[in-house]
Amino acid sequence: MDSITMLLEGFATAAQPEYLLYALLGVTLGTAVGVLPGIGPAMTVALLLPLTYTLEPTAALIIFAGIYYGGMYGGSTTSILLNTPGESASIVTALEGNKMAKAGRGAAALATAAIGSFVAGTIATVLLTLLAPTIADLAVQLGPADYVALMVVAFTTVAALLGSSPVRGLASLGLGLFIGLVGTDTLTGQQRFTLGVATMSDGIDVVVVAVGVFAVGEALYVASRLRHGPIDVIPVGGKWMTRGFWARSWKPWLRGTFIGFPIGTVPAGGADVSTFLSYAAEKKLSKRPEEFGKGAIEGVAGPEAANNAAAAGVLVPLLTLGLPTTATAAVIVAAFQSYGIQPGPLLFTNNGPMVWALIASLYIGNVMLLVLNLPLVKIWVKVLQIPRPYLYAGILLFAALGTYAVNFVVDDLIVLLVIGVIGFFMRRHGYPVAPLVVGLILGPMAEEQVRRTLQISEGDLSALVTSPFGAVAYGILVVLLVVAVALRLRRKKSEVTV
To answer: What keywords sit in the KW lines (predicted)?
Structure first.
């Protein structure tokens, strides 16, 4: 009951005209970003992060949440009409959605994706409302060794399961942990890996790294692969949702929601795994299996619902434990930290009004996204026509201006360029960037908790693994790794058969 009361108070805050405007700005930016191939929510949040320092925390976080949800909506447009997923989670949507568009049913594909996203996003946000306070209450009782165990779970699963190679994921994580060590050791006061540069004694700012990896690295990568000539976009044709399409879509929406949300709450679950699982489930349960691969509407409805449900699920460990499990979540954690707010068990206690306003804005943003995506889809299609050189030149300009605005230090621009080049080569050679950002954010926190544990235990290393919660967490880690490897093999098998 307390959660309902706090949520109503959050609605009272989020419904103020100022915050409604911020929510509309966020979902509009997110949708536009999701439509553009190769520009994901993580990049947009990273780009806007330095530019929102003049806003109060509640307003900034409402904008970022809108971008996050909007990016999940917008990715379906590119997948269906261009057969080019804007986000990896939209790959499955392209399998059936593009076939529907080519068959003259593009309007129905876009409609079932938008409505399914709304249904899944709303149900998943309700689950977030009910679960998050309970998990936060339990997490308050955790000790330093328990937090070490949680972070080891996050490190291992995010690094080993994101991307095509566990070794590359671990290498990316190691690089992020190393960058997190740069600066002054809080215990001894000694400088570490600063190369004698005075401005690096305070460490490398997370915002600079996020903007460098996502914005500069992506811009350089796209420039290296830039194709010339106009982009062929399939016209939006056919009828919207007929009675038959409604009948074939509502069950996949619900199934996708309840597949996506729990997977989104576990480290390295995210939207990618849930969309492939949803697609496999719909293909197995469909009364028209022969249509799969030729434009089955169930293959759009289920995965899109799973995609958005997983996006809400990701917010559960982020808000209650302070654990980012996706690249966008990692950048949102950086947004919290830039305002001196640490996501975790005490977030609902110390910053309750702000958190509940944020959750209320998710409900409001979902309604806004439905209105934006259904009648205005032809406008979003026009966004696809923006020339890539102009688009990425603008991204680089905003990246440089935003980075300089963090500390007004020229050295940050040099670091930005170096990190951007690193991000380019990581993409070029198939290294996932999410583990780098997660390692950078959680690394210093893990170091602090390890030191606390060893101080309490007087140097006894066994204290790190002998706590009851820690033993359970490490056991769950083993199970997660086994299940995730099995799911990855199943996903590859389904990709081969499609």
So the answer is: Membrane, Transmembrane, Transmembrane helix
Structure tokens belonging to residue 312: 């809400």
Report the distance separating Cα 498 and Cα 487, nearest Å.
16
Helix (H, G, I), strand (E, B) or coil at 458: coil
Amino acid 18: pLDDT: 92
Residue range 416-429: mean pLDDT, rounded: 89
What's the CA gap between 368 and 181, in Å, rounded? 42
Is 191 strand, coil or helix?
strand
E-strand ranges in 225-306 read none
Say whether pLDDT at 279 is over 80: yes
Query: How many residues are present in the chain?
Result: 498
* DSSP secondary structure string for all residues of 331-386: HHHHHHHHTT---STTHHHHSHHHHHHHHHHHHHHHHHHHHHHTTTHHHHHHHTTS
Whole-angstrom CA distances from 167 to 184, 281, 431 are 29, 30, 9
Distance set, CA 302 to CA 20, 68, 248, 276, 317 (Å): 30, 20, 10, 10, 24
Q: What torsion do the CA atoms of 375, 372, 95, 389 make, to the nearest 10 degrees? A: 110
pLDDT in tens, 169-198: 888 888 988 988 888 877 777 888 887 777
Would you tell me how many other CB atoms lie within 10 Å of the CB of residue 247? 9
Q: Are 226 and 93 in contact (CB under 8 A)?
A: no
Q: By the 8 A CB rule, do 132 and 362 touch?
A: no
Among positive and negative, which fits the CA dihedral 440, 441, 444, 449? negative
- Name the maximum alpha-carbon separation found in the chain: 71
Residues 6+ apart with CB under 8 A from 478: none
For residues 306 and 262, what is the distance between their CA atoms, to the nearest angstrom?
10
Tens digit of each residue's pLDDT (9 = 90 or more) over 362-420: 999 999 988 887 777 667 667 666 777 777 788 788 788 877 877 778 888 888 899 99
Distance CA 112, CA 375 (A): 13
Can you tell me whether residue 317 is helix, strand or coil?
helix
Q: Which residues contact 29 (CB under 8 A, 6 or more apart)?
A: 44, 48, 63, 66, 67, 70
